[in-house]
Design goal:
Length: about 160
């Protein structure tokens, strides 16, 4: 393995801001992800919600945006992304949107002061994202794969 470069030049991610949005931000200095904030929410008859973010992005070639649920929404409101992880490719230029589902339909836990029910609304942090390298690795068909100690041992084979 080669040495890790001391300085890495990272490409810039361009965002087109609409609907009065601001550039995505981290909630804390040590946060791994940037927050996506709802600028519009449409509740569908199936119990899901489509959230607009007002953001369009130009992800550099060789990179991708991965969108994840926020832990607070999962723990406090049993709400998550419908597709679990969203992938925004570098050639997509449309609005970034997320679709949420509540895993306990009809159940909305109370917020800290107990005065109102938690629901998704405009201004909420509805998801989080990180930009990661998306290598275009070559594929090669082979007759046999190299041997490893684990081999074909699968589910549970490395411990509980």
């Amino acid at each position: 393995m080669g040495a890790i470069p001391k300085e890495i030049t990272l490409p810039t991610v361009q965002f087109q801001l609409t609907d009065g949005t601001i550039l995505p931000q981290r909630s804390s200095q040590g946060a791994a992800c940037f927050d996506l904030i709802a600028t519009g929410v449409e509740f569908l008859p199936d119990g899901t919600a489509i959230c607009n973010t007002g953001l369009r992005a130009a992800i550099p070639a060789g990179w991708a945006m991965l969108i994840y649920s926020r832990s607070g929404m999962g723990f406090n409101a049993s709400t998550r992304l419908v597709n679990c992880v969203g992938v925004i490719d570098s050639d997509y230029r449309g609005e970034i949107m997320v679709k949420l589902v509540n895993d306990k339909p009809g159940y909305l836990p109370q917020v800290k002061d107990g005065s109102e029910l938690r629901n998704v609304k405009v201004g909420d942090k509805v998801a989080q994202f990180m930009i990661v390298p998306a290598f275009n690795l070559p594929f090669e068909p082979v007759q046999d794969l190299d041997a490893t100690d684990r081999g074909e041992n699968g589910f549970g084979s490395t411990g509980a």
